[in-house]
Amino acid sequence: MARGCAVLGTGGGGDVRTGVLAAKGAIRAYGPVPLVRLDTLPGDALILPLSGIGAPTVGHEMIHSEEEPKRIAEEVERLFGRPPSAIMSAEIGGENGVSPVAWAARLGLPLLDADGMGRAFPEVQMVSMYVAGLPADVVVMSDVAGNVVTIRPVDGLWSERLARAVCVASGSHALMADYILTAERAHGAVIEGTVTRALSIGRATEGAADPLRALTAELGAARLITGKLTDVERRTTGGFVRGSATIEGTGADRGRTLRLELQNENLVALEGGRVRAVVPDLITVVDTETAGAVQTEALRYGQRVTVLAWACDPLWRTAKGLETAGPSAFGYTHEYVPVEELETAGASAFGHDSVPVEELEGRG
């Protein structure tokens, strides 16, 4: 599951190694965690979406305490008059996909086979519940110092602004529950089957003679480049990791260069002044030999990597989905083009006659 979540994290969502340690420890202490489908829950069952919020580089060192999910669950029970019935990952990507196993074990609750993204995104409102039009009534946050903050934002955009401010005050890392909802309201508002999907991705490379080929086939992904990391620019600011990474092609890709733009996750892949892939489609950097995903905070000069890109959940290609997490949401000014169209549009050049980089100017 952790291998799959790392791939779906598109570079963000936190380092899965921390989540694995927490999950294994919690399962040993509290027992196994049932995985349940949405249609097996009563309509009034309260679903608690949980995720870490903040800069992944900080989260790697500032580990969630065991008390954070308990404090949030207690506050939610106080606010709603009943305890939650299931835990859901707000984003299946990265540590935020794995750690809910630990949180569910500690709370004695099942884990819902669903999430709010089908990947990882950097901002609070970038979830399927927001796209579906559900109100962001309550956000509950807790940090390692023991603080508990309840926010009642007027909408999803304000939930990002206020939650980010609290996160920065907590050292740029905290635990958060948002879009707390019943099973009845969750139908059509969450992306179902994503835990199972992460497991399938993780298992795809087990025992494979060519792990990279096996992973690419499982994802239905386009291979953008195979090469060596030659430059990484990364900074932590405003509760995010921002920057870029440059990969110079090797072997059959020698003479080519790909640049990735980052905001916690890999947002855009550029080559030769043209876009190769862009959010909300998924762009992931993997180790060329093992096919293990490399998070943005772990990118280092000299790494031998392959960049893969594949299609996002159809929800993100709707008008509201693109408004929420498409190129314009991150300051880019061109129209979104699906990765499969970029992949097949022009076999001349490097196989992609896509959007000129000049149209991307003005990023915030």
TrEMBL record:
InterPro entries: S-Me-THD-like_C, S-Me-THD_C_sf, S-Me-THD_N, S-Me-THD_N_sf. Pfam families: S-Me-THD_C, S-Me-THD_N. Residues 1-151 form the S-Me-THD N-terminal domain. Coiled coil: none annotated. Residues 156-339 form the S-Me-THD-like C-terminal domain. This is DUF917 domain-containing protein. It comes from Nonomuraea longicatena.
